[in-house]
Amino acid sequence: MISLSIALIKQSALVKSIRRSGVFAFSVTLLVSVSALLSPVHASQSTHPNLVVNQQDVLTMRAAIKQPGSFKQAFEAQKAQVDSLLTQPILVPVPVDAGGGYTHERHKKNYQQMYDAGMMYQLTQQQKYADYVRDMLLEYAKLYPSLPLHPKRKSRNEGKLFWQGLNEAVWLVYTIQAYDFIVSSLDDTQRKTIETGILLPVADFLSVQSPHTFNKVHNHGTWATAAVGMTGFVLDKPELVETALLDLEKSGKGGFLRQLDELFSPDGYYNEGPYYQRYALLPFVTFAKAIEQNQPERKIFEYRNNILLKAIYSTVELSYNRLFFPLNDAIKSKGIDTTELVIAVSIAYGLTANNDLVDIAKQQNRILLTGDGLKLAQAIDANKPSHYPFISREFLDGKNGDEGALIVMRQHTPTDQAIVFKATAQGLGHGHFDKLTWQFYDAGEEIVSDYGAARFLNIEAKAGGRYLPENKTWAKQTVAHNTLVVDETSHFKGDVKVGNKNHPIVDFYHHDDKLTLASAHIDTAYDDVNISRTMALVSVKVDDKDTPLVFDIVEVNSDNSHQYDLPLHYQGQLIDSNFARQAATEKLTPLGKQAGYQHLWLKANATPKKGLAKVTWLNDNGLFYTHSSIVDGNTDVLFTQLGANDPDFNLRNEHSFIQRTNSKQHRFVSVLEPHGEYNPSAEYTLNATSNLETLTYERQGDLSIVGFSVLSNQGSTTFVLAINHQTKNSLDNNKDNNTTQRFSYLGKTYSFDTRYQLIQISQ
């Protein structure tokens, strides 16, 4: 406690004025003394709870649990679980295990159980629930002052209860809410013991003793500032709140507000990607909710043009069939039903009453016992039609929206076709070297895939639950993604610091009812190479049926000759190719020695003749997919399987094929085509071969001219797609800009003045 006291004592009244973009100017005058810091402030019973749940919420919820409905059902289910806990001994073990180990998981369970029991106390007013929380906190107050740093601490972000300070902050975010629920039931001695023995020491450890984390603009810093700030509200210590908002020196160079300023783009996209956006949402929205309750004049949810609400909505939208897009260091099984987003959606609904969120809440299938949770439960019970609008969107990256973008192209419904075109910034330490990569989804499944993170989260037998070594040697490397690799070297030579200083440039994004287009480029991934990529999700009519197609154009230019590799990682079973392959049937060798290549077994290779090279595979959704590429006769195709140089069997055995060529300039042009159906139960197969008959490409000035024909009942249907690469914004707004473009195709001349022209030539 000494370090906390010294850091917070002021010799005279402190007058601090906070004036930040989008925030109400707030002044606070505070006189802090040694006795005020060391002694609990005994708030009256009427002031608690005062964080995410307030007194009026409690009264409303107490009435709701007496009425039939989903809220009462959630209460009864939660009460049964908590009642079973009360029959079990309280366990507060000395920490010894890393993530996933017994003591780690025990302390995680403890904070959740204290929270749940505290809520039961508020709703039932039965003393046994408050006693359970009290007794556990008294045990922590005995243990914590004697704890050294965790024996398996992780780097500089160490903890005491946990192997890293991040988990310590999560513990306090939940525990301070539990204490808020039961503090009015305690006597003075109990309060003082708990506050000085565990709550303030943890807040001190997370802030004054861990400035490298507390002041950092990062999700670890977000958790720490939220934990300390919420503690300040409950214990009536405004100095802790101000420190949490502005950093330890109250300079504004760190702290919660700076996190809001820098970690989200103006569209609410989080720099580290949706997996970590989901995780960081909980401290953001819970602390913000506490600020809203205690300092409504700040209008925190209006800060930066409603940035927190945008962040909640964008997290929802960065998912497909309920799972988050696995960008950067992502665990692929995480989805919209994760606790953090359940809480965020509930808070957002409480603030906005947006009926679209009811659809998401139904999919989450979990009712929170909070005031906002009650509002959402009542909306679900009302059974009004609700459909969240999953649409094509460009999510700008960077705090000012000028560091590239994540572009999501969608067709119609949440489980129809979707493309993720990643032209974002690096994403700090959790970012991957994957500039201009893409993923494709269809019929509820991942088709063209991203590996995500190499990690078995909280499985101690696998590197203690940490990121595996293969996360660096494989998952982060460029060849692990669906983007261009030059000379078997990852983007920015695998240097995160260099990657954080560079990002792609989005040349244009366009969406309308017919198709979605985007194009971006980067000339800093390699020293002397410029890479551009244009993608389109198109649906054309063939025999009165919509036929979805994905167009992909990668152009690479350099003054020097290089080896260019373009991988495509797919989910499913290879069915066939329209060219001969030479398979390795007796011995496998790694494809390379570094930058991820050492983990790829070379299963087969081929050099298709000039023309159209096709590879077809079958996905678990029962659909066939054919990737068709224009090849020049000098391009090799390498078929690979993941798993080489993996003695601990840490990697999934996934498949890819790589187009390889050596030149100064090259253009990769391809189409991905879903088709057919396989039903093993009913024992039938339909349309297992590609319907794409021809594919041509020509560059005419600023225009890309893509011609293609698709098999139909009448023979074939021919189309031409002309893409205008001019970067004038007016094109994407469909304004009259006097920039008419002309092109010729099959002897005819066409003209248009928008971003693209899609024409059916014949049928």
UniProtKB/TrEMBL annotation:
Residue ranges of every copy of the Heparinase II/III-like C-terminal domain listed in the record: 399-657
Residues forming coiled coils: none
Secretion signal, residue range per the UniProt entry: none
Keyword tags: Lyase, Periplasm, Signal
Compartment(s) where it occurs, according to its Swiss-Prot or TrEMBL record: Periplasm
Record-annotated membrane-spanning stretches: none
GO function terms (MF aspect): lyase activity
Alginate lyase domain segment(s): 88-304
UniProt xrefs under PANTHER family: HEPARIN-SULFATE LYASE (PTHR39210)
Protein's UniProt name: Oligo-alginate lyase
Source species of the chain: Shewanella japonica
